[in-house]
Automatic annotation (TrEMBL):
Species in which this protein is naturally found: Flavobacterium sufflavum
Protein name: Crp/Fnr family transcriptional regulator
Gene3D superfamilies, per the entry: Jelly Rolls (2.60.120.10)
Residue ranges of domain Cyclic nucleotide-binding in the record: 1-118
Superkingdom of origin organism: Bacteria
InterPro entries: cNMP-bd_dom (IPR000595), cNMP-bd_dom_sf (IPR018490), RmlC-like_jellyroll (IPR014710)
A Pfam family that the UniProt record links to this protein: cNMP_binding
SUPFAM superfamilies hit by this protein: cAMP-binding domain-like (SSF51206)
Length: 175
């Protein structure tokens, strides 16, 4: 978990799971009943747009992920969470999560900060899709998150960038 004595108090609330690649942890349209912490591996967040699979975020070791909107409000999830590679994850139920943040002010603040950082990420992603061309988005990905390019299949990267795999190959070949 997080390297924090406060989090260690709640370690028993998390369920450790080893999952293979291509495991769906949450389907778009379902109510999220768990949040996940990644010990090892990579997860992607995606949605279906008229039959086309669109990836919009990747999560790696030391990061947590959930459909926070669904998890907190019991509304259907707007996206799917899927493993890209074999993973070791730790899941926590909504009830245990609520107990944890009600019990610990420190953890509640960390969770709020995490949600705020995710909001900032989505704002940057949204603005990048409007103002930047695909090559610029690729170069920013290369500079800011090179591990994505090493660990994630090209078709997911292309989807994340809003382009086809062929276009991504052309951009890579120009570099």
């Amino acid at each position: 978990m997080y390297d924090n004595i406060e989090w260690d108090k709640f370690r028993h609330l998390f369920k450790r799971q080893e999952i293979p690649a291509k495991t769906i942890l949450l389907n778009e349209g379902e109510i999220s009943k768990q949040a996940f912490y990644i010990e090892q591996g990579c997860l992607r967040v995606c949605f279906n747009n008229n039959g086309k699979d669109i990836t919009f975020q990747f999560f790696f070791e030391g990061e947590s992920v959930s459909s926070i909107e669904s998890f907190r409000t019991n509304q259907p999830s707007l996206f799917t969470i899927e493993s890209i590679e074999p993973c070791i994850i730790h899941s926590i139920s909504k009830k245990d999560f609520e107990t944890m943040i009600e019990t610990s002010t420190s953890i509640k603040q960390q969770v709020e900060e995490h949600a705020f950082q995710r909001l900032i990420f989505y704002q940057k992603l949204f603005l990048s899709r409007i103002k930047d061309n695909p090559e610029k988005r690729y170069l920013e990905l290369l500079e800011n998150n090179p591990k994505i390019l090493l660990r994630v299949p090209q078709h997911y990267i292309a989807s994340f960038l809003g382009i086809t795999s062929v276009s991504l190959s052309r951009i890579r070949n120009r570099r």
